[in-house]
Amino acid sequence: MSVHDYIKESAFPLFTCPGCTDGVVLNAFLRAYEKLGYDRSNTVLCCAIGCAGRTPTLLDFNVLRVTHGRAIAFATGVKLAKPDTKVIVFMGDGDSLAIGGNHFIHACRRNLDITAITFRNEIYGMTGGQYAPTTPAGGIATTSPYGMIEPSFDGCKLAIGSGATYVARGDVYNVNNLEKVIKGAMEHKGFSFVEVLTTCPTQFGRRNKMADPVKMINRIKDMTVPIEKAKTMSEDELAGKFPTGVFLDKEGIDLNTRYEELLARVQEQA
Amino acid sequence: MANTRKLIQGNKACTMGAIKAGARFCASYPITPASEIGEYLSEDLPKVGGKFIQMEDEIASMGAVIGASVMGVKAITATSGAGFDLKQENIAYAAMTEIPVVIVDVQRSGPSTGGATVCAQGDLMQVKYGRSGDCPMIVLYPNSVKEIYKTTIRAFNLAEKYMSPVILLMDETIGHMRENIDLSEYENVEIINRKLPDVPPEEYKPYEPDAEGIVHLMPFGNKEGYRYVIQGMHHGADGMPNLSPATLQCSLDRINGKLDRHKEDIWEWEAVDLDDADIVVVAVGCVSRSATEAVHAMRKQGIKAGLFRPITLWPFPDEPLMKATEHAKAVIVPEMNMGQLVHKVKEYTRDCTQVIPLNVYDGTVIMPEQIEKVIKEVSEK
């Protein structure tokens, strides 16, 4: 099986802009998926709205693309209805950390056995470049023309604080690490989360003096530092940096396992 | 013969009907006066191998039931007015993507928080018109505990048959009412399950309707290799986003047309003393119980009154109503809101027929005497 077999060529040409790195994430996911040898007949990809939310529709999988921010809510029904299903959720900054934030933290709390991937491009791309809860301080967006004044969310810290049992960060520059952490997330039993630093030259780059896609990827290179190295750095040195790698990988009983125990208990009594 | 009668609450009857219909998943969020539906299902679903989950909000519970149905598991959620507002976007998603689910709305007084324990019929229009776009909907509205049981089963059957969300409308009074009922006659009731594809995966187009206008969506997680995209953008037969004028029109025609085409199968109504009636009352839900009593009382006094009670509220039973009011000199529409059903009644009665609204929105249930008073006034004219 080649990675190309997973792509729905009829869905091309891509809807994404030139220089977009969403495809890099998709590529890393497919490579990891193929290495794990999973079966598409019990895999469901969930996604919602925006650029990241649309990317899985290019793949030859069963894809459930839903209302903005609600991918994890729908995925909860999918996973409870058929516990043996492998569920991977693809989301953008808004889907996971703004409109869908509530579903995100509760899926973490429940330790729902799904993998959630957030494409963190620091902007609302599809709608024309409005600021996201991940837009960096001072960042120019169509709704922050004088610079972003709100602090940004750290998706990984949010996931850890909410009870996720696998939390990692990858980026579109270091693709080997990206594939590795996505693979680790899919292998993990319980709620696994990967925050991926991606780039949007069209909507973020152009407004922030980085219209050149290569410049944006170099910025990602400069912004990221492996977790191991980050541990040796001072707070000042870490300002504005994003550690990458696996933050958390621990065992925990997932929701479906608890539910199966409940069903066994109830039916024994009956 | 064994006594098979039981004292059952309306909301409980709904959950019993759901399990009988094959529902094995419920996601909900607490809200009065619908909370008992989640409570009963949290207790009873695990006994039959099903699951209940209390989601983090109304929006999530609507999403989760659609997710379960996509996997082929019949699913139900329950709420009341303010929660229903929040569910609307995902209900529209289910209509657009043709995923069968049942949504219960036990009406309370609104708008906003309104009155949690106060009966009202303020959602008659929002269940049909509360969503963006031209969004089709089947809405059923029973008026007794036994009928709630039967109609819940019918709601699932229609959802599966027409690949559509179905709203089961109730009100605080019938949801919380208890009646001593016998359900043994429904032991062998027909249960309908959605049709599966009749073509192999390589020829499969998920949104290509059959001769009856119905799509055959293969549940996700199938072992046969049917793979496709379910998504809420306009789409053609392949299910992929497509905004061409032809596809847009086709997609709206498909989701609306299937209900219009089969409306006679979807329609259900009750006629009380209508044959020679010159005064017709049109009422739904708890108010129709008072209306039935009023009609009977009027008949005893020699006044030719009758009742037309839509059980299918949407698609609106326009032709049956027109027929029922053909010879009526007056039509009275009692409802517990500021006037909603009356507009549809006006639309489908003759211009020469007087249509009289009777609106009570103070939280008290309309009593038979209030309806009798209006009937008498009209008959004396």
UniProtKB/TrEMBL annotation, chain A:
<dbReference type="InterPro" id="IPR011766">
    <property type="entry name" value="TPP_enzyme_TPP-bd"/>
</dbReference>
<keyword id="KW-0560">Oxidoreductase</keyword>
<protein>
    <submittedName>
        <fullName>2-oxoacid:ferredoxin oxidoreductase subunit beta</fullName>
    </submittedName>
</protein>
<feature type="domain" description="Thiamine pyrophosphate enzyme TPP-binding">
    <location>
        <begin position="56"/>
        <end position="196"/>
    </location>
</feature>
<dbReference type="Pfam" id="PF02775">
    <property type="entry name" value="TPP_enzyme_C"/>
</dbReference>
<dbReference type="InterPro" id="IPR029061">
    <property type="entry name" value="THDP-binding"/>
</dbReference>
<dbReference type="InterPro" id="IPR051457">
    <property type="entry name" value="2-oxoacid:Fd_oxidoreductase"/>
</dbReference>
From TrEMBL, chain B:
<protein>
    <submittedName>
        <fullName>2-oxoacid:acceptor oxidoreductase subunit alpha</fullName>
    </submittedName>
</protein>
<dbReference type="InterPro" id="IPR050722">
    <property type="entry name" value="Pyruvate:ferred/Flavod_OxRd"/>
</dbReference>
<dbReference type="InterPro" id="IPR002880">
    <property type="entry name" value="Pyrv_Fd/Flavodoxin_OxRdtase_N"/>
</dbReference>
<dbReference type="Pfam" id="PF01855">
    <property type="entry name" value="POR_N"/>
</dbReference>
<feature type="domain" description="Pyruvate:ferredoxin oxidoreductase core">
    <location>
        <begin position="277"/>
        <end position="371"/>
    </location>
</feature>
<dbReference type="InterPro" id="IPR033412">
    <property type="entry name" value="PFOR_II"/>
</dbReference>
<keyword id="KW-0560">Oxidoreductase</keyword>
<feature type="domain" description="Pyruvate flavodoxin/ferredoxin oxidoreductase pyrimidine binding">
    <location>
        <begin position="17"/>
        <end position="213"/>
    </location>
</feature>
<dbReference type="InterPro" id="IPR009014">
    <property type="entry name" value="Transketo_C/PFOR_II"/>
</dbReference>
<dbReference type="InterPro" id="IPR029061">
    <property type="entry name" value="THDP-binding"/>
</dbReference>
<dbReference type="Pfam" id="PF17147">
    <property type="entry name" value="PFOR_II"/>
</dbReference>
